[in-house]
Amino acid sequence: MIWIQKTVVTAFLLFYFFSLNAQTPVWVSSYGTNTPYDGNSFITGFGMAQITPDTPVDQALAMAESYARTDLIQKVQVQVSSLTSSFEDETNGNYNSQFTNETESASSLNLFGLSTENQVENSMVYVLSNVKKDVLQEQYRERMNGLLDQFLQTANQAKSSLDAGNKDLALEQLMEAKPVYSDLFSTWTVVQSLGGGVNWRPENVRDEINFINQQVSALINRPVTTLDDAAWWLANTLGKESNQPHTVNLSAITYKNTGISSEFANYLRQLLTRQIGNRTNWSIVETDARLKQDPTHLMTGTFWDNGEDVQVILNTREIESGKIVTTTEVTIPGEVIEQSGYDILPENYETALADLKAMKENKGDNRGLQLEVWTAKGQDQLVYEEGELLEVSLQVNLPSYIRILYHLNDGTRVLLVDSHFINDRDINKPYTLPYQFECVAPFGVEMMQVIAQSEPFERVETKTIDGIPYLTEDLEKFIANTRGFKIKKQEAQQTEEVLTITTIKKTE
User: Fold this and answer.
1) What pLDDT was estimated at residue 122?
2) How far apart are CA 329 and CA 128, in angstroms?
3) How many Cβ atoms from other residues are within 10 Å of residue 489's Cβ?
4) What pLDDT does residue 106 have?
5) Cβ contacts of residue 233 below 8 Å, gap of 6+?
6) Which of 198, 190, 289, 279 is closest to 241 using CA atoms?
7) Could you tell me if 369 and 454 are in contact, meaning their C-beta atoms sit under 8 angstroms apart?
């Protein structure tokens, strides 16, 4: 046994020695931007991690592989998001009527045929991952065809049950068909983003979709006259999954694909939480990183305002498999929301949307610097009520300077943190910044822009009011100056993440 262990160690040291002395591949020196893989046929991802006393080579290699996989998945998601937006435009925003509200997420996207290669140089580990588009597409095409067959079969079974007068079984089957279609739509978007090659489109089953919606409404037969009725509808149309002892995290309900919530959506979520607790076997677990709770399922919600009423759609995914297990929806008449007194969208919605677009455009190349940012409530669909405290945690793979700019709902921008240094002892692991921020008025859509940079930041113009440093530059000038840093210093590495936070007045 001892001899085998020595052999393994010796083999690894030989690998490490030869890696150090091998010629540097172009994909390493270009940080994954120049690879031997044709971009028309392959998708690639790049990752790197620094070796430290706390992060030995094998751990650094695992982290670099994870970063490379994430980078590859994000490239697929960019194509999927673009395709979904185009599809929404083609259908005049009505694709939501086919009860889907999300595409494949990073946690649920399965990669088939993924290959990796690595390089160790000095104290860094570099990984390049790649997958052939046609291999990945074929796997998703097969999955799509299987889901289509399953959807049509379930819908036909429901029709037969209705014809036989078995309404209870028909309702159960209709509920089973909904999540299958949502999975089908998600899979179709991946296939299309990888080059298409299929004639089927979601509108091909429009008749089946309309039939399912009409029959569910007829069988439930409960008008929505209050927001509590809407929550009842959503909790009572989860199908047989509601009888399972799932532990579910119910995220914020947000508007379209913006990640922006509202007073209306937050109140509906509170009502829904209560209804689910009363009418299902589910246990609702709030997101709080400090509690280290591990839900088995994640429920995400989206709403649309068509001018006359509001449609709310919820999908529940099994976290381990990524499979959508329930899809439920409700249409809320406009007068019901008006009577509730809650705003559908924050007052600064349009301004915030423009700022988000400006921050997401032309982010540039991070040159291998990885940054992940989250709060105790996670990193997506964030809603904070008056008086709640916000802490920021992050993880970087290289020693970095951190700058945080907070964009308030009135258009002013506060420099919360400037040049906080993360040294090599704190990289490659979660790091919570030693600051807390309290949610106070005015309320609306706000954004936290977190920037990591391998070199110290250049000074930005601020003015201090009541001890708070406000940015005096407008957003475009700030972005131009900040992102222009890499042009001045070609070896500087920089990346950023933006958290969208909807702040609301505390509900009674």
Assistant:
1) 86
2) 42
3) 13
4) 42
5) 220, 222, 224, 328, 330
6) 279
7) yes
Cis peptide leading into residue 442 (ω within 30°): yes
Asked if 314 and 328 count as a contact pair (C-beta separation under 8 A), the reply is yes
Q: What's the Cα-to-Cα distance from 125 to each of 29, 160, 240, 375, rounded to whole Å?
A: 12, 59, 48, 28
Residue 292, pLDDT score: 55
**How many degrees, rounded to 5, is the angle at CA 380 between CA 379 and CA 386?**
85
What one-letter code names the amino acid at 20? Answer: L
Q: Which helix (H) or strand (E) is 306 found in, with range?
A: none
- Amino acid identity of residue 252, one-letter, is A
Residue 75, H or E segment: helix 57-90
φ, ψ of residue 390 in degrees (nearest 5): -115, 125
Handedness of CA 25, 29, 31, 33 (dihedral sign): negative
Task: For 424-448, give the DSSP string.
Answer: TTSTTS-EE-S--EE--SS-EEEEE
Annotate 314-326 with b (16+ C-beta within 10 A) or e (fewer).
bbbbbbeebebbb
- Please tell me the distance from the alpha carbon of residue 279 to that of residue 350, in angstroms, as a whole number: 37
List C-alpha distances in Å: 249 to 281, 298, 314, 424, 464: 14, 5, 12, 34, 40
Give pLDDT, residue 74. Answer: 86
| pLDDT single digits (tens) 176-201 | 999 999 989 888 988 888 887 788 98
Q: What is the pLDDT of residues 40-53, one digit of tens each?
A: 999 999 999 999 99
> Widest CA span of the chain, in angstroms?
78
Residue corresponding to tokens 């305002």: 305
Compute the distance between CA of residue 1 and CA of residue 16 in angstroms, rounded to an integer. Answer: 23
Instruction: List b or e across 360-397, with b for residues whose CB sees 16 or more CB atoms inside 10 angstroms.
Output: eeeeeebbbbbbbbbbbbbeebbbbeeebebbbbbbbb
| pLDDT surpassing 60 at residue 124 | yes
- pLDDT tens for 261-303 read 999 999 999 999 999 999 999 998 876 645 456 789 999 999 9
Regarding predicted confidence, which is higher, 241 or 94?
241
Is-contact 290 338, C-beta < 8 A?
no
Pairing of strands 444-453, 494-504: antiparallel
Residue 181: CB atoms within 10 Å: 26
